[in-house]
Design goal:
mainly alpha
Length: 146
């Protein structure tokens, strides 16, 4: 008996069912491969399966469109939030806002201030500062910033 592969995709399944139902009209009643009951079930299944595939395609395209809109809104929200945190951290550094308010909003003040302290320490270790006209050449300066 030859090996036959079953259809793997919905499109192939639809084509196979349509072909099976169409073969009913081509063959005589005596030479049909399946009984009348099986062919009738195949006809009903074909109608239901077609509508399910169409419904799936509709939902898939609607979800893809909604995801595009969601991603654009998410990008804008991230931008607003990051800008707010940056402005808040700068306000704390300028002593316009107390640190308690920053902690209340759950922004991480230590991480931002720690990076500035690390840079100052690196400058003092090297003995070179750019605002005093010093040069920024050498391996030690690069190691401090990288």
């Amino acid at each position: 008996m030859p090996y036959r592969r079953l259809p793997n995709t919905d499109k192939a399944r639809l084509a196979a069912l349509e072909k099976a139902v169409a073969m009913e009209h081509e063959c005589d009643v005596d030479k049909q491969a399946a009984s009348y009951k099986t062919l009738n079930e195949a006809r009903v299944l074909l109608r239901r399966f077609k509508s399910a595939v169409e419904q799936f395609q509709y939902c898939y395209t609607a979800q893809a469109e909604a995801n595009r809109q969601y991603q654009s809104h998410l990008k804008t929200a991230r931008l607003y939030i990051s800008h707010f945190i940056q402005v808040l951290n700068l306000a704390v550094l300028r002593n316009e806002v107390r640190k308690e308010q920053q902690v209340f909003l759950r922004a991480r003040p230590r991480r931002f201030c720690r990076a500035r302290a690390d840079r100052r320490e690196a400058h003092s270790r090297l003995g070179r500062t750019s605002h005093r006209g010093g040069t920024r050449t050498g391996v030690a300066w690069r190691r401090a910033y990288l």
